[in-house]
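Job type: complex structure
Entries:
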Amino acid sequence: MTTTAETFEFQTEAKQLLDLMIHSVYSHPEIFLRELISNASDALDKLRYEALTNTELAPLTTDLHIRITPDRAARTLSLEDNGIGMSRDEIVRFIGTIAKSGTKEYLKALREAKTASDGKPLSPELIGQFGVGFYSSFMVADRVTLLTRRAGEAEAWKWESTGDGTYTLEPSERAEPGTTITLHLKPEDEENGLSDFTREWTIRDTVRKYSDFVSYPIRMKVERRETERDEDGKPRKDAPETVTVEDITLNSMKAIWTRPSSEVTDEEYKDFYKHISHDWSDPLKWSTMHAEGTAEFRALLYIPAKAPMDLFMRDGERGIQLYIKRIFIMQDCKELIPEYLRFVRGVVDSEDLSLNISREILQKNRQIQTIRKGVIKKVLDTLRTLKNDSKDEFLKFWGEFGRVLKEGLFQDTSNREAIMDLCLFASTNSASDLTTIEEYIGRMKEDQKSIYYMTGTSRPAIENSPHLEAFRAKGYEVLLLTEPVDEVWVGQMFEHKGKGFQSVGKGTAEIGSEEERKKSEEELKGREAEFKPLFQALKERLDEQVKEVRLSARLTDSPACLVGDLYDMTPQMEALLKAAGQEVPTSKRILELNPAHPIVAKLKDLAATDVKDSRITDYAELLYGQSILAEGGQLPDPSAFSRKLADLMARGL
Ligand code: ADP
């Protein structure tokens, strides 16, 4: 067979990533071995899973294993598995390109970090978060060859690259399906962590450290040299050395989640996390569970320390692996974890499910439902413990995943209270510290009826918005909600522990005791008559923008503000829905005036004398625009507004 190797270019992002791998110095280059073993173990999992439904593949699964073969003389290290292998098409797709969304931005950040690191080793966690996997070979090798044959196919393929931007691909031969990766190692460089990775003990230590629990044997042939010994056990002089070759298994293969947690070290738990998550940094927290009863299962669940880039992508992965009686079933079992806990990684191993369960059956399976409930409860419990016992760690968690967890407030009504107890919020109580709802309730004023909140795009925008004035003057605390998800849950959260939620930008402001409120209401009512002409003039001018003009109890300093009715959509929510491509009508709001403000008082007098006074219509637009600006909003027509303002300024001088 004559073969010609075809040359391909790596996709741009892949090229840049490789370039970083090659030209950076890493603090732990030996983790390339963990990455390759992880991939091999995944490939074995996949073959075993395919063989469950494709009986033709079953004979291939009798001795699934990984083999490491060092060659000191040639300075190569090869890693072989008899797993699923790759077709030509799969090589091009999986190895030549990076399909992850957000890659460009991430690489940019990495390159900047590298420049900033000034020649110091680049933190492997930084790049590992990305899941570079196979490319990590180029930390230790200057040329990599991959020989692979897809299970069920006859043809094998040889891939080769020096990581310089191109790779070659040619048809080849391989007796059995599987993959062999051969690394042509860079020169040894102890100073930069480049040990001699062909040495038996370097390999044994690295495998034991990072991959001991891999559930397939990782084998290696080792040489045993022995010289005949005398009666005292000393090597006999001049006796010939005998060399025997022994095939040893480097890992203990114990499924970590089946072992009592008292016998598993933290290091082992951390390494297992890295193995399943392809994340290079330590997890923040983990917990184990063993449930018996209606469903018997074990679970090992991790909370990562950092959010992955694709946390908010629609097709982002969810990381719970499903095993049935120690046999890997699937990678990303969505049925086991709700969306709002999609950051959780780990393993669930069921004793009761049938091995040939299909994705369709999973969705309706009662056992799975029970396991899912248990997993949710466990994760929420773990988070509660973290919050109570290690505030700083919990704050870290909150910073990374709080926005996701809050989705649970409307996705999972049965756990709403437990989730709310975990939530932290910015509030007017402190410029820097976040508060829980419980703490907030503890600080509530005696006459305060509801939990007050305001939504908006940023803390300064909300804090300075006029809606807060009277609340602030009265000493009421207001939650400052600035994330898009807040708009959704507050709309559905009617109460927590007997306290209702009330937006300070909606409805009539309920400030003070029952008595005080009544009094202020009556007072405003009493003044309505004198303001009637002004209301009329403003309403006429602003008919398209506002549905009502009225006097306000919530303003102390500002002349006016815009509020919504209790169930109206906020302008932020409108913007969100529009950004998501939905058609939403712009809802009209209510213009509230501060009767004590000099502008409002003067306008009232003008209107009382002549409703048609042209100054009123000019001021109407200015008041409306100013109210939008004051709450941090965007004017529909900024240039018209600024022309009006300039006119007025000129007249005022
Ligand atoms: P990741 O493992 O994070 O997906 P990698 O770059 O390590 O990223 O690998 C990319 C893909 O290449 C894998 O998802 C897998 O489909 C394929 N692959 C890598 N190594 C092997 C292997 N030993 N056998 C079969 N497929 C593999």
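Summary: The first strand starts at residue 6 and ends at 9. The two ends are 93 Å apart (CA to CA).
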